[in-house]
Design goal:
Elements lengths: L3 E5 L12 H13 L4 E4 L11 H15 L5 E4 L5 H13 L4 E5 L8 H12 L6 E5 L1 H4 L5 H7 L5 E6 L7 H8 L4 E4 L2 H9 L4 E4 L6 H13 L2 H17 L7 H9 L17 H13 L4
Parallel strand pairs: 1-2, 1-8, 2-3, 3-4, 4-5, 5-6, 6-7, 7-8
Length: about 290
């Protein structure tokens, strides 16, 4: 169910910083029309850190309603406070999300035993599928493979988004967590190799701007069509670095405006609009990644 080209959806906002729900619904349709296999709503790319809990719930609810069962909706539900993550998880369950994506706690740097206790408590709060999210570059907390393997024994912890970019983890994760455990890349530059190494798909930032092309890449990689996968990866590769010249999601939201996918680019402080030099880098990457 959670496989292939999954978008880490941005949260469109108006100039005054309010959520732009009309544009959000248009983005949902844009992705369905372009073959995206699933949506992560209010993950870190969706500026979850600066949305209030009511806004968080409202955005996921709007995505679930608009999708109307056509593709899976995975709700961001992470926090560095276990009680808050449980509260979000219960709310995401109530509004009909198909699964939850829960990031490792950030800033407080729990031990591996603490991570086991944290994710076990969250999983116990719902029967819905849970996807772990390991992104130590953001959280300063790395889930070891042994920890993931132990958590994989919990019935509704069904997979992981691994954003380490460390391809040496794919085989041990598969061996220790089993064939049914879902392995999703969270690192666009290494996503193709991740899938060719046995991964099941990717939760992607690049997918926001080139969904059809990213879908073609994922389909080829998962089918073992190495030549096509490499060709699509080479086409999209200029975006992999350009979309992270400044903190995500600053470049990708501007790229979406440049492509007229959205009509305006606004952020919540402390994120601000990109510099002119960043815009030029992104513009050149968009041109280089255009389909022939």
């Amino acid at each position: 169910m959670f496989r292939g080209s999954i978008v880490a959806l941005v949260t469109p906002m108006t100039q005054d910083g309010a959520v732009d729900f009309e544009s959000l619904e248009q983005l949902v349709e844009f992705h369905i029309e372009n073959g995206t296999d699933g949506i992560v709503a209010v993950g870190t790319t969706g500026e979850s850190a600066t949305l209030s809990v009511p806004e968080h719930i409202a955005v996921v609810g709007a995505v679930v309603k608009r999708v109307a069962g056509r593709i899976p909706v995975i709700a961001g539900a992470g926090a560095n406070c276990t009680a808050e993550a449980i509260e979000l998880t219960k709310a995401m369950d109530a509004i009909g999300a198909d699964a939850m994506l829960t990031v490792a706690p950030y800033y407080n740097k729990p031990t591996q035993a603490g991570l086991l206790a944290h994710f076990s408590a969250i999983a116990a709060a719902t029967e819905k599928p849970q996807l772990l999210y390991n992104v130590p570059g953001r959280t300063c907390c790395d889930m070891e493979t042994a920890t993931v393997a132990e958590l994989s024994q919990i019935k509704n912890i069904v997979g992981i988004k691994d954003a380490t970019g460390d391809l040496s983890r794919v085989t041990p994760l598969r061996q220790q967590c089993g064939e049914d455990f879902i392995l999703l890349s969270g690192d666009d530059p290494t996503a193709m190799a991740f899938m060719l190494s046995g991964g099941d798909g990717v939760i992607s930032v690049t997918n926001n701007v080139r969904p059809a092309e990213f879908k073609a890449l994922c389909d080829a990689a998962l089918a073992g069509d190495i030549a096509t996968a490499r060709r699509m990866d080479a086409q999209l590769s200029p975006l992999y670095s350009a979309l992270f010249v400044e903190a995500n999601p600053i470049p990708v939201k501007w790229a979406m405006e440049a492509l007229a996918v959205t009509t305006q680019t606004h952020f919540r402080l402390p994120l601000i609009s990109p510099s002119e030099s960043t815009k030029e880098i992104v513009r050149e990457a968009l041109d280089a990644s255009r389909s022939a």
